[in-house]
Each structure stands twice: as structure tokens, then as C-alpha cells.
Design a protein that fits this description.
Length: 384
């Protein structure tokens, strides 16, 4: 559809994909009065469905209390939620820097890493996406980097895990560069195909970082908040990052929000040095209220029991498909030659992330089991 008064993201404007949205219900988008089951959590952010009442109500309640604060304001909600987030990250302390999006979390993590190390170069993977702002897109390796390429003189690509299983080539990159500030990795690259690295590879990268005094930034904008089945993605691989970037599921998409967790050594560095990072809507109370409700929901035993059952069935079903698949937690890629198009799925009542030779699924974490089973039958038929 053409002629909108607003831009369409990541598209040629003429003929860019849009669709009418009349309303949303728990797990469905209504478009021209047709129901589409959301199997992608929209863009991986709607982890708790499309009308998560517990988040909406927490935001409404906060709105009745207060919603405008100064970035430097100290209030009970800010202190309480931050302590709880640090507690659930469970990496011996640390400190949180708040943002309003994934890209901003990445920007601030990169800035902190450069301020901390006094170095500039960042190592990153080619199949990766870290956000659309200049700094975040410069470490991004997928097609979205290729048209802008700004700041790329400070990004170096590391070999892919299958090109360097013993990390000998990557090790040489560490040894031959004295300007390395950080490595940034999506714990599992999500939108580039759910490329699940081995624990050994990830731990090997962490070891190289430790040996060479380089910081490890894990981008968990998709992987955080149980998307990989563990509270945070790094816990699935026994990692100890120096910085973690968060967004999307942090508020289930209800309020734009994000965060960066930093380890003690990073935040202690800024005790006597200016932390040259900030934003007007830092630690916004509506975001904090939403996050508080998300953390409470995630700790709930009945949610955890449901998630365990859903993930078991999800994995079993996806892996039963004849296609090549990759599944971790509530995130899956199905490789398909001549894949049905996004519209084919849409017309069959399913909203998925459809790419050239694969589809990616990221269902709501609270999707009822019977609805998943019913949906899987449809999916199976479409893929046959
Ligand atoms: C891994 C990862 N990092 C960062 C971002 C950027 O997040 P945002 O779109 O909220 O800026 C995304 C968005 O898809 C992402 O998938």
C-alpha cells in the first residue's frame, strides 16, 4: 500500500509492506475482520500476548500516580524495580542504566565499553542485528548495515563458529589488535536465523575477552526475559558477560523501554569519571511500572509451569517437521526452500516472520497449549 503520511520501516516506500490493524486480542491481530494468530510476538517484544492486562494495569496505576520525572530523580519504584532486576539477572551485583529501546541500550553499552577501556574497536558477528541507530547499526552485520556503513572503521568481524571451531583464527584477531574495547554478540542471533552457538564457542570467546582485557557485551534484546527458556539467555550457556543489553520483552512491548546491566567493575570505574551517557526519559516511571509487573509475572510459579509445558511441546513439534529447524526456548527457525510468503501465512491466519529461505517463530510465552497445538497443525499443513 502507498500514500501513507508516515515512513514504512526498512522498506522501499513505494510498495512497502503494511497491513490494516483493526484491533488486537490476547493472541490475535484482527485485520479486515480476519483473525491472525501472532506467532512472532510482533517483533519479538510482545512476549505476554497483545493485551497483557497485568502490564496495562500497572502502567495505568502509575499514570494515576505520576508519569513525568527528571532523569536524576530518586523514587521508591526506581530503586525497588532496579534491585529486583539485578536480583533476577543474578550475576553478583552490578548496576542498571535505563533506555527506551534496544538500539539505545546497545549505543550506551558501546559507549560505556569505550569509556571504560579507553579503546574503540568492537568485534561482532556478521549474521547479527543490534539496532537501527548509527552506532548499533555499525556493529550490526546483516544487510541493514550495508547501506550506511558509518563508523565501520571501528568494527571488525570475527569468523563464524563453524569457520573457527577451535577459535584459533579469532584468537589471532585478539592478539593482533591493541585497540579492542569489546566483543558484542547476540547470545543467540535471533532475526538472522536463530543461529545457536555451542556453549564451548561462547565460553571460548569469553575466555579470550578475559585474557585480553576486552569486555563481553551480550545483546539480549531478544534473548532476555525467558525467550530462550531461562530468565536471561546467558544463563543457558553459563556465561558471565560484562554488559547486557535489554529491551523488547522487558515491558512486553506495552511501553518503549530498555536497560543495560553492567558488572561491578564497570560501574565502579565511573565513580570518579563522568559517565557521559544520558537521555530525557531515563528510568521513565511508566517503563519501570511495566517492568515491575513483568518481573513479578515471570517469578510466578504458574507462569513457569506453563512455560515449561509450552516449550516442551514447541520443541517437540518444531523438531518433528521434515525441514531443517533450530529451536531454543520459545524461538525457532525453520529453513524452507521456496518458502511460502508472509502473505501465504497471513492469509492462512498466521502472523510469522517470513524471510527469504526461512521463517522464524517467537510465540507469546503465555500462549495456551491447546492454541499452540491447533496452530501447529495449520503450520504443518502450510509447510507440507
Ligand atoms: C538483538 C537485537 N538488538 C537490538 C535491537 C534493536 O532494538 P530496537 O528496535 O528496540 O531499537 C533488536 C531489534 O530487533 C534486536 O533484535
Amino acid at each position: 500500500m502507498n500514500g501513507h503520511p508516515f515512513y514504512i520501516t526498512w522498506s522501499k516506500q513505494k510498495g512497502g509492506l503494511t497491513y490494516p490493524m483493526d484491533k488486537v486480542e490476547d493472541h490475535f491481530i484482527y485485520s479486515n475482520n480476519e483473525k491472525k494468530l501472532d506467532l512472532s510476538s510482533i517483533s519479538y517484544q510482545a512476549s505476554f500476548g497483545l493485551r497483557p492486562k497485568f502490564i496495562e494495569n500497572a502502567v495505568k496505576k502509575q499514570l494515576d500516580n505520576f508519569s513525568i520525572v527528571a532523569p536524576k530523580a530518586v523514587f521508591e519504584l526506581k530503586t525497588k524495580v532496579t534491585k529486583e532486576l539485578i536480583n533476577q539477572i543474578d550475576l553478583d551485583g552490578g548496576k542498571i542504566f535505563y533506555t527506551v529501546s534496544g538500539a539505545e541500550s546497545v549505543e550506551n553499552a558501546l559507549k560505556m565499553a569505550r569509556l571504560y577501556t579507553g579503546k574503540k574497536t568492537v568485534l561482532a558477528r556478521k549474521p547479527s542485528y543490534h539496532g537501527g541507530t548509527l552506532g548499533a547499526v555499525s556493529v550490526t552485520g546483516d544487510w541493514r548495515n550495508q547501506s550506511v556503513q558509518t563508523l565501520d572503521q571501528w568494527t571488525l568481524r570475527i569468523p563464524e563458529p563453524n569457520e573457527d571451531t577451535d577459535l584459533s583464527k579469532t584468537s589471532k584477531i585478539f592478539e593482533s589488535n591493541s585497540d579492542l574495547a569489546a566483543v558484542i554478540l547476540e547470545t543467540v542471533p535471533g532475526n538472522n536465523g536463530v543461529l545457536i552457538p555451542t556453549k564451548e564457542w561462547l565460553q571460548g570467546i569469553q575466555k579470550l575477552c578475559n585474557t585480553h582485557g576486552v569486555l563481553l557485551i551480550l545483546d539480549e534484546v531478544i534473548c532476555g526475559f525467558y525467550r530462550l527458556g531461562t530468565p536471561f539467555g546467558f544463563q543457558s550457556f553459563d556465561l558471565r558477560p560484562d554488559l547486557i543489553t535489554l529491551a523488547k520483552g522487558i515491558t512486553g512491548g506495552v511501553i518503549p523501554f530498555g536497560a543495560v546491566w553492567t558488572s561491578d567493575k564497570i560501574h565502579e570505574h565511573f565513580n570518579d569519571i563522568v559517565l557521559s551517557c544520558g537521555l530525557t526519559n531515563y528510568a521513565h516511571p511508566l517503563g519501570l511500572a511495566a517492568l515491575e509487573s513483568v518481573l513479578k509475572y515471570l517469578s510466578d510459579q504458574s507462569f513457569q509451569k506453563h512455560l515449561e509445558e509450552l516449550l516442551k511441546e514447541f520443541k517437540k513439534d518444531i523438531e518433528s517437521l521434515p525441514q531443517r529447524t533450530r529451536v531454543i526456548g520459545a524461538l525457532a527457525a525453520i529453513d524452507i526452500k521456496n518458502a511460502p510468503t508472509w502473505k501465504d501465512f497471513w492469509d492462512a491466519g498466521l502472523s510469522v516472520i517470513a524471510q527469504k529461505d526461512r521463517i522464524i517463530l517467537a510465540p507469546h510465552l503465555n500462549l495456551p497449549l491447546d492454541l499452540w497445538k491447533e496452530t501447529f497443525k495449520k503450520l504443518e499443513k502450510l509447510l507440507a
